[in-house]
C-alpha cells in the first residue's frame, strides 16, 4: 500500500462503450465510501492519469484493477498486459472484458470487412480517396503511430491472466457495490476473497428464477421482434414468441428487461458449466419450436421449421450477442483465422 | 476449457489385436506405447484377444495389483463386448461404469487399409476414451419390473407359434392380426415341402388352439397404432377395425355369406384366382369364425340398399353402425412376426405375367392345386377347363437378380420342386420343366426330395429364363407359350414350348415394414427386413430392448425355420417374464433442483412423459423410473442444469478434446501430422504475432 495507507483502485476502458464506468459511478452515495476507502491510481474516465504514470508504478502497486472492454487492438492488449503486471487483483469488469460482448460480434466477419463498412462503404461516409487508418504514418515532424486494429476481438482472459469476472452489460450497481464491499472487507479486515477465477456479482441460476412472469409449457410457432407485438402482461415472453435469453443467462440483474416487456439479451453470460451460451439457447429454441404433427411429410416438416426459424433475424447476433469471443464458434471461419 | 477429473485417475488401457482384424491395419503396439505416455495412464498393453478369458484376467489382475480406478479397452463395438469388459471390472471390484470402450475395429481398422491413418485414428479414439473415462462416476443399474403380458404382431405361423408357446407357459398374449383371420401365408398353401403334409391340416389345429386359448386375446382385423414405453412397460394402442358384425351375437353360421348377393375377386386369400362374397371369411377354417363386411364393395354402404345379410342373420349380429374401436393395453415385451409380401411378378414384364393368360404366379398355383381352392384342386389353364400338357416352372423370379432383389429367397427352389411333383401327381402325362440357376436344397430331407423329382422325370434346365412369349417362330410353337433360355449345361439357346408357365416369385419385406419399424423404434435393413441384434448369435432379439422378431419379417425362411424362430422369441420373452425384473442401464437424466430456474423449456419435450413441473417450488423434475436416458432434455436445457448420467458435459467435451488431440496441437503452431484434407490456409505456418 502507498504512503497514505489506502488500497489503490484502477479502472480502465479498452474496447468498450463507457457504460461500465457509468455503472461504477451509478452506485450512488456509496461512491463516497469508495473514495474514502480507496486511492485512485488510474481511472482515465474521471481523473487525469496518463499511461506513463502507470508505467512508473512498481509491479503489483494497484490493489484492484477493474478492466472493462474487449481486446480489439494493440493498445488494448498493451494496456491489459501493463495493468496485469501492476495489479494484485485484475477484474474483468462487464461483458466485453468477460466474454467479448458486442465488439466480438465483429468476429463474425473480417478485419477488412469491418474497415470497409466503417471507413468506405456506408451511407454516412464520404471518403473519395479511400483513406484507411494506417498503423504508421510519416509526417515532417516524424513518425506517427496508431494502434494496430486486430482481426479477432478477444476477451480479457484470452490475453492475460484474470482473477475475477463481473458480468453484465453493464453490471448492475447493486452487484457492483456488493462486490466492492467484499473487496473492501478483504483489503481492510483480511476477510477471505472468493476463489480465483470466480464470477462475482451474479447468481448461479438462470434469469427466469428472478423473473416474476408466469412460465407455462412452451410451444412456439413463430417469433416476433419487439416492435411487432405488445406482449400479454404477466406471461413469459418466450412463449409469446419474443426471443428471451433468460433461461440461458446467469441471474443477478433482477430480470429487469423481461419485466418491461423486453426479452433478456443475455448480458450476464452463460450459466455455470455451460460451454456455449448461444448454442445452449439455440438448442432450447429448437426444442420448443412447434414442428407440426407426427406423421407429417418430411418436406412439410422442413417447411414448417424453416418458416419458424426464418422469423428470427440475425440468429448469430441474437444468441451470441455477448458471448462470441468465448463461444465454441469462436469466430467465422475465413482464410485469415491464423491472424491475430 | 478446463475439464479436470475430481480425483487422480489411474487408468489402464488395453489395445486389442482382435486376431488380425485390428492388428492388420492398426499398429496396436505403437498405440499402446503412445497411450502409455498420456496423462493418468498407469498401464497400457496390447493383447491378441482382449475378450478371451486371458484378456479379461489381464484387466482383473491389473485392477487388483496396480490399483487401477478406470479402464479403457480399445477393441470392437461396445455392442459386442462392452458387457464382457464391464463384467471383468466388476469381478475385480471396480464399478462397471468406470469403463469406456474405444471402437477401433468397425470405426477404424475395417474402414480403411491405410495403416498410418488407421493408427493415427486409433490414437485419437483411444485418447478420447481415456479423457472421457477420467470423468466417469460409479453408477448402479436400475431394476425395471417386467409386465408379464406380451404383444405378438402378426398371426402367421411365426406369430401363432410364439403366442402358443407363451400362452402354454402360462403367460398372457395379445395377438394382433391385420387380416380378418389368422393363418398367414401358410393357410393359403396346399402341401408343404418336402414331406407333402397338407398345410391347412397341420396349421388349422394350431389356429383353433389360438382362438380358444384362455391366455390369448386375439385381436384380428386390427392394427397397432401406437407404441409407448420401454422394455417391461410398453403401452400399446390398437385400432380394431369395424367388421360390422357383433362378435358377441355372431355364431359363425355362415348364412350371411351364403345370402350375400355380391361377389368380388379375392385378391388376398385366393391370390386373384377365385371369388369371395362381400361379407366373407377368408376361408372356411378362419379363426376367429366371424365374417367381415367389405365396406368398399358392400351394396348397402355404396347405395344404402340390400341388407340381405342383416335380414337373414338368425342372431341379428349384423351391425352397419359399428365403428373402429381403439383398444389400449400394457405389455412387457413385443414380438414382431409380420411376415413377408410375395414379389409382384408384374415387375418383370418379359415373363408376361398379367399379359399372357397362362402365366401364373406361385401363389395362384398354390390355390389352384389346393382341393379347397377355386378349381377344386384341378390343374387347368386360365380358361378353367383345359389341362396343360406341359408346364414350365421358372425359379428365382425377383430373387438373385440385381434388378430386383440380390438375395436368395430360400424357399422357391423347394416349392418349385413341390409344384413339379404335384403336376406329375395330378397330370401324369404332362411334361414338367424346371428352369433354375442353382438348386438350393439345404435342409432335412430337402436334397432327397430333389433326387426324387429327378427320378419322377422332371426336366431340369439350368439357366435364367430370358423371356416368356407367345410369338411362335417355329413349327410346334403355335398357340403355346415359348420359354426362351440359355441352357448353360449344354451351352445352347433353347426355346421350350409349353402350355402353362408358373413364376416362382421370391419373398420380399412387407411393403410397410419401414413404417412398422419406426412405429416400434427398431431397425430395418436396406431390403426392408427387420434387423436382428446379432446375425449369428442373437437372431430373434433386436437392438431395442424388449422387442423381438420372428419369421420372414427378419428375412426369407421356410416353415421349420420360422417355427423355430417363433419358439425362440417366445423363450426369450418367457425368460424375461420369469426374471420379473431386468436391470436397465443407469443412463438417466437428472435435474439439479437448486439450480433449476423453472423456465419450463424441457416440460413438453420428454417422449416418455418423465418430466414433471412442481408449481409450488417452481422447478422441474425427471421421474427416474420413467426416464429412458434419451438425452433430449439434457441437450435442450438452456441453463445446463439437466445432467445425463454417463453422458455429462464434462465426459462428452473431454472425449471430443481427446479425439481432437492432434488437431489442437496443429492449432498451437506445429506442423500437421495427418494429411487430412485441409484448406491451404490451415496448412500455412501460422504467424505468431506477439506485440
What does this structure look like?
- In chain A, 31% of the residues lie in helices and 13% in strands.
- By secondary structure, chain A is an alpha/beta fold.
- Chain A folds into 3 domains: 8-103 and 152-189, NADH:ubiquinone oxidoreductase-like, 20kDa subunit (Rossmann fold, 3-Layer(aba) Sandwich); 109-151, no CATH class; 207-319, no CATH class.
- The model of chain A has no long low-confidence stretch (mean pLDDT 92).
- Chain B has 691 residues and is α/β, with parallel strands linked by helices.
- Chain B has 5 domains: 11-141 and 650-667, 3-Layer(aba) Sandwich (Rossmann fold), CATH 3.40.50; 143-241 and 325-339 and 514-584, FAD/NAD(P)-binding domain; 242-323, Alpha-Beta Plaits, CATH 3.30.70; 352-508, FAD/NAD(P)-binding domain (3-Layer(bba) Sandwich); 589-644, Alpha-Beta Plaits (2-Layer Sandwich), CATH 3.30.70.20.
- In chain B, helix 1 (28-36) packs parallel to helix 4 (115-133), helix 5 runs parallel beside helix 14 and helix 11 (412-426) runs parallel beside helix 12 (446-456).
- The two termini of chain B are 25 Å apart.
- Chain A binds chain B through residues 74, 77-78, 148, 204-209, 215-219, 236, 238, 245-248, 251, 270-275, 280-281, 283-284, 286-288, 335-340, and chain B through 1, 594-605, 613, 618, 632, 635-641, 649, 653, 679, 681-682, 684, 686-687, 689, 691.
Amino acid at each position: 500500500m502507498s504512503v497514505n495507507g489506502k488500497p489503490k483502485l484502477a479502472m480502465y476502458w479498452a474496447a468498450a462503450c463507457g457504460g461500465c464506468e457509468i455503472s461504477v459511478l451509478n452506485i450512488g452515495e456509496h461512491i463516497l465510501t469508495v473514495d474514502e476507502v480507496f486511492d485512485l491510481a488510474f481511472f482515465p474516465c474521471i481523473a487525469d492519469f496518463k499511461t506513463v504514470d502507470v508505467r512508473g508504478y512498481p509491479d503489483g502497486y494497484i490493489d484492484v484493477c477493474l478492466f472493462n472492454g474487449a481486446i480489439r487492438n494493440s493498445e488494448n492488449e498493451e494496456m491489459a498486459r501493463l495493468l496485469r503486471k501492476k495489479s494484485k487483483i485484475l477484474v474483468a469488469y462487464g461483458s466485453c472484458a468477460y466474454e467479448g460482448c458486442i465488439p466480438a460480434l465483429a468476429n463474425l466477419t473480417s478485419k477488412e470487412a469491418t474497415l470497409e463498412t466503417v471507413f468506405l462503404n456506408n451511407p454516412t461516409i464520404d471518403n473519395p480517396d479511400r483513406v484507411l487508418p494506417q498503423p504508421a504514418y510519416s509526417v515532417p515532424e516524424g513518425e506517427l503511430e496508431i494502434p494496430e486494429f486486430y482481426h479477432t476481438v478477444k476477451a480479457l482472459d484470452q490475453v492475460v491472466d484474470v482473477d475475477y469476472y463481473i458480468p453484465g452489460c453493464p453490471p448492475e450497481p447493486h452487484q457492483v457495490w456488493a462486490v466492492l464491499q467484499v473487496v473492501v472487507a478483504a483489503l481492510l479486515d483480511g476477510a477471505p476473497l472468493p476463489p480465483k477465477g470466480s464470477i462475482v456479482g451474479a447468481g448461479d441460476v438462470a434469469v427466469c428464477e428472478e423473473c416474476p412472469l408466469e412460465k407455462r409449457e412452451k410451444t412456439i410457432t413463430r417469433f416476433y421482434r419487439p416492435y411487432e407485438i405488445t406482449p400479454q402482461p404477466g406471461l413469459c415472453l418466450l412463449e409469446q414468441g419474443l426471443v428471451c435469453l433468460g433461461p440461458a443467462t446467469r441471474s443477478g440483474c433482477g430480470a429487469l428487461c423481461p419485466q418491461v416487456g423486453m426479452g433478456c439479451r443475455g448480458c450476464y453470460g452463460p450459466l455455470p458449466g455451460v460451454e456455449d451460451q448461444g448454442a445452449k439457447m439455440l438448442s432450447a429454441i429448437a426444442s420448443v419450436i412447434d414442428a407440426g404433427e407426427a406423421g407429417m411429410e418430411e418436406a412439410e416438416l422442413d417447411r414448417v421449421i424453416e418458416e419458424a426459424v426464418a422469423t428470427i433475424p440475425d440468429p448469430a447476433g441474437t444468441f451470441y450477442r455477448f458471448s462470441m469471443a468465448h463461444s465454441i464458434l469462436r469466430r467465422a471461419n475465413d482464410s485469415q483465422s491464423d491472424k491475430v | 476449457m478446463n475439464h479436470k477429473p475430481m480425483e487422480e485417475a489411474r487408468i489402464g488401457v488395453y489395445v486389442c489385436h482382435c486376431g488380425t482384424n485390428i492388428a492388420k491395419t492398426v499398429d496396436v503396439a505403437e498405440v499402446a506405447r503412445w497411450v502409455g505416455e498420456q496423462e493418468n495412464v498407469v498401464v497400457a498393453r496390447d493383447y491378441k484377444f482382449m475378450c478371451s478369458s486371458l484378456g479379461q484376467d489381464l484387466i482383473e489382475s491389473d485392477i487388483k495389483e496396480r490399483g487401477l480406478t478406470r479402464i479403457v479397452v480399445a477393441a470392437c463395438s461396445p455392442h459386442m463386448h462392452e458387457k464382457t469388459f464391464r463384467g471383468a471390472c466388476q469381478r475385480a471390484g471396480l464399478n462397471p461404469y468406470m469403463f469406456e470402450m474405444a471402437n477401433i475395429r468397425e470405426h477404424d481398422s475395417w474402414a480403411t487399409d491405410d495403416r498410418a491413418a488407421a493408427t493415427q485414428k486409433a490414437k485419437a479414439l483411444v485418447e478420447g476414451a481415456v479423457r472421457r473415462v477420467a470423468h466417469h462416476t460409479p453408477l448402479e443399474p436400475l431394476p425395471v419390473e417386467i409386465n408379464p403380458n406380451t404383444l405378438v404382431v402378426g398371426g402367421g405361423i411365426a406369430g401363432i407359434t410364439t403366442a402358443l408357446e407363451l400362452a402354454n407357459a402360462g403367460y398372457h398374449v395379445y395377438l394382433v392380426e391385420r387380416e380378418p383371420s389368422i393363418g398367414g401365408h401358410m393357410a393359403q398353401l396346399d402341401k408343404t415341402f418336402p414331406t407333402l403334409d397338407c398345410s391347412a391340416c397341420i396349421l388349422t389345429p394350431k389356429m383353433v388352439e389360438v382362438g380358444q386359448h384362455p391366455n390369448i386375446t386375439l385381436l384380428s382385423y386390427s392394427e397397432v397404432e401406437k407404441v409407448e414405453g420401454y422394455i417391461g412397460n410398453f403401452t400399446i394402442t390398437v385400432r380394431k377395425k369395424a367388421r360390422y358384425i357383433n362378435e358377441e351375437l355372431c355364431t359363425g353360421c355362415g348364412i350371411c355369406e351364403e345370402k350375400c348377393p355380391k361377389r368380388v375377386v379375392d385378391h388376398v386369400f385366393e391370390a386373384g384366382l377365385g371369388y369371395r362374397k362381400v361379407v366373407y371369411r377368408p376361408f372356411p377354417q378362419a379363426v376367429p369364425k366371424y365374417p367381415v363386411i367389405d365396406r368398399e364393395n358392400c351394396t348397402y354402404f355404396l347405395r344404402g340398399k340390400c341388407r340381405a345379410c342383416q335380414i337373414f342373420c338368425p342372431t341379428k349380429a349384423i351391425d352397419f353402425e359399428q365403428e373402429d374401436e381403439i383398444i389400449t393395453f400394457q405389455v412387457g415385451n413385443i414380438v414382431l412376426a409380420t411376415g413377408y409380401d410375395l414379389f409382384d411378378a408384374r415387375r418383370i414384364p418379359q415373363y408376361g405375367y398379367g399379359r399372357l393368360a397362362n402365366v401364373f404366379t406361385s401363389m395362384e398355383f398354390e390355390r389352384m392345386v389346393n382341393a379347397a381352392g377355386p378349381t377344386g384342386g384341378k390343374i387347368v389353364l386360365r380358361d378353367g377347363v383345359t389341362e396343360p400338357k406341359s408346364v414350365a416352372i421358372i425359379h428365382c423370379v425377383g430373387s438373385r437378380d440385381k434388378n430386383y432383389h440380390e438375395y436368395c429367397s430360400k424357399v422357391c427352389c423347394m416349392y418349385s420342386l413341390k409344384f413339379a411333383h404335384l403336376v406329375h401327381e395330378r397330370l401324369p402325362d404332362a411334361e414338367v420343366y424346371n428352369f433354375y440357376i442353382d438348386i438350393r436344397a439345404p435342409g432335412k430331407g430337402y436334397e432327397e426330395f430333389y433326387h426324387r423329382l429327378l427320378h419322377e422325370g422332371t426336366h431340369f434346365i439350368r439357366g435364367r429364363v430370358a423371356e416368356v412369349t407367345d410369338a411362335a417362330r417355329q413349327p410346334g410353337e403355335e398357340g403355346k407359350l415359348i420359354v426362351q433360355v440359355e441352357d448353360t449345361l449344354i451351352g445352347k439357346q433353347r426355346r421350350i414350348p409349353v402350355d402353362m408357365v408358373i413364376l416362382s416369385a421370391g419373398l420380399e419385406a412387407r411393403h410397410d415394414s419401414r413404417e412398422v419399424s419406426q412405429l416400434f423404434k427398431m431397425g430395418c435393413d436396406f431390403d426392408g427386413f427387420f434387423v436382428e441384434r446379432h446375425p449369428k448369435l442373437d437372431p430373434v432379439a433386436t437392438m431395442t430392448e424388449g422387442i423381438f422378431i420372428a419369421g420372414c419379417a427378419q428375412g426369407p425362411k421356410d416353415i421349420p425355420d420360422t417355427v423355430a424362430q417363433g419358439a425362440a422369441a417366445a423363450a426369450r420373452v418367457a425368460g424375461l417374464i420369469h426374471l420379473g425384473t431386468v436391470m436397465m442401464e443407469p443412463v438417466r437424466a437428472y435435474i439439479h433442483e437448486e439450480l433449476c430456474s423453472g423456465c419450463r423449456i424441457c416440460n413438453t419435450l420428454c417422449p416418455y412423459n418423465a418430466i414433471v413441473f412442481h408449481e409450488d417450488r417452481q422447478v422441474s423434475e425427471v421421474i427416474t423410473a420413467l426416464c429412458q436416458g434419451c438425452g433430449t432434455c439434457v441437450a435442450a436445457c438452456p441453463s445446463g442444469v439437466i445432467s445425463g448420467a454417463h453422458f455429462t458435459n464434462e465426459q462428452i467435451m473431454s472425449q471430443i478434446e481427446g479425439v481432437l488431440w492432434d488437431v489442437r496441437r496443429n492449432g498451437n503452431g506445429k506442423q500437421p501430422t495427418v494429411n487430412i484434407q485441409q484448406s491451404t490456409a490451415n496448412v500455412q505456418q501460422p504467424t505468431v504475432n506477439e506485440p
